[in-house]
Design brief:
- By secondary structure, this protein is of the alpha/beta class.
- The chain has two domains: about 140 residues, Response regulator (Rossmann fold, 3-Layer(aba) Sandwich), CATH 3.40.50.2300; about 270 residues, Alpha-Beta Barrel (TIM Barrel).
- α8 crosses α9.
- The longest helix has 21 residues.
- The chain starts with 8 loop residues before the first strand and ends with a helix.
């Protein structure tokens, strides 16, 4: 923010050139720095998001609407103060803007000193309202801006923030290879999301944020759509694993991203740490995609009751051992015993096991010896853009007739139990 020794920076958004010229002159005379201009709401949001000024002056009636611009800027760049410049100073015009979080309201035609005072007040955290707004609007504001409305404003800003991430694709997809631990060959990748936002938030924070404002499904579908495009560059028969929540499955919208995709190369990883209320509905919602070849994985098995409940009710093709269970498993008998129990259940049910979070060779050898045929983790491959893994993934794709993707039907050499294969072939490798 502007302070002693630094001029206050400003972006002006107005569709009338003569108004922009007037404000340009005022800002120059009063010692402000004009960073940029825009003539509509979308342009205002882009300019403010790019330039990060101390203050944005927004025309109420520009194309796209000053109210829309105020809401979007408040969600994306909350540190920028907002001053509305308009000929309308009546209560119906002003109150929605105040609820949207503006810091000042100046009438068009105001003298330069009044405009300058509004900008400085905004930067200093003081509200400035044109005299014409009057005491009636102030009284109405004090009554209406109660806790419920403030919560509604906060929620709208949060919804707008998620929608902006989706609309502007402020995320990228990275992949982590999944390996056959016996043959040490990649069999697929897990698609992971990285968000490119300011302030920075982890993927878990963004998805939790979207969950709170009812936009989790929309965000998951957006990132899944991008992840499935990886199939075009990933050599067959390597698969892509997508993280999806039960809510997204139950929404009935999976078809928006799965349609026309080779589902025999898609794994749906169920990511949910809370119990599911209605497993019957979830099974029915998953059934069409599994019938067409998609495989189901239950993520973080061993992390709590919910994951075991998912395994029992959903009968997945894959069980993913939680990284907390895999970490230090080579020196922890308790972790070995738990993993052995999970792998034993999987062998009885004809289910494959993927060990997550493998960070050391010793961990890889132990989980393989226990019967987990597949694994992933920093030791085997860090999450990176697909282009950085293509040499590794492309070199082995389709070259081994005995190679099988996690959760795929067993081949002719798979008559032995997973544990027996791992112990025999592991001892040969060592």
């Amino acid at each position: 923010m502007g302070g002693p020794g630094r001029a206050i920076t400003v972006v002006v958004a107005d569709d009338e050139p003569h108004v922009v010229d007037y404000l340009r002159a005022v800002l120059h005379v009063e010692g402000f720095v004009l960073l940029g201009t825009a003539s509509d709401a979308d342009g205002a949001v882009r300019e403010v998001d790019h330039l990060r000024p101390d203050v944005a002056i927004i025309d109420l009636h520009m194309p796209g609407g000053g109210l829309h611009a105020a809401r979007m800027i408040g969600a994306l760049v909350p540190e920028t103060r907002l001053v509305v410049f308009s000929a309308d100073a009546d209560e119906p015009s002003v109150l929605p803007l105040l609820r949207a979080g503006i810091h000042g309201f100046v009438q068009k035609g105001s003298p330069p000193d009044r405009i300058a005072e509004a900008l400085r007040a905004a930067v200093e955290g003081r509200a400035y309202l044109a005299p014409a707004v009057g005491q009636v609007a102030m009284d109405a504001l004090s009554v209406r801006l109660d806790a419920e409305e403030r919560e509604a404003l906060r929620r709208q800003r949060d919804v707008d923030a998620v929608d902006q991430v989706i609309a502007q694709r402020r995320f990228t997809t990275v992949v982590q290879p999944i390996f056959d631990l016996v043959r040490r060959q990649p069999v697929g990748v897990e698609a992971l999301t990285r968000f490119q936002t300011i302030p920075a938030r982890s993927p878990a924070e963004w998805f939790a944020h979207a969950e709170r404002v009812g936009r989790r499904v929309a965000l998951e579908l957006a990132v899944s759509r991008g992840a499935l495009r990886l199939l075009d560059a990933l050599p067959p028969p390597l698969s892509v694993a997508l993280n999806v929540s039960p809510a997204t499955v139950l929404s009935g919208r999976l078809g928006e991203v799965l349609i026309d995709r080779p589902l025999d190369r898609v794994v749906l990883e169920l990511t949910e740490h809370a119990p599911v209320d209605d497993y019957h509905r979830l099974v029915l919602a998953l059934e069409p995609w599994r019938r067409r070849g998609a495989r189901l994985a239950v993520d973080d098995t061993g992390a709590g009751y919910a994951s075991f409940s998912h395994v029992l009710h959903l009968r997945p093709e894959l069980i993913k051992l939680d990284l907390e269970l895999v970490r230090d498993i080579h020196i922890d008998p308790a972790r070995q015993a738990m993993a052995r129990a999970v792998v034993g259940y999987a062998a009885e049910m004809g289910v494959d096991v993927v060990a997550e979070g493998i960070e050391h060779e010793a961990e890889a050898q132990v989980v393989a010896a226990l019967g987990a045929r597949f694994g992933q983790g920093f030791h085997l491959g860090r999450p990176r853009p697909l282009s950085e893994h293509l040499d590794l993934l492309g070199a082995s794709a389709g070259t081994d007739p005995d190679r099988r993707a996690p959760g795929a039907a067993p081949g002719p050499d798979d008559g032995r139990s997973a544990g027996a294969r791992a112990r025999t072939e592991g001892s040969e490798r060592r």
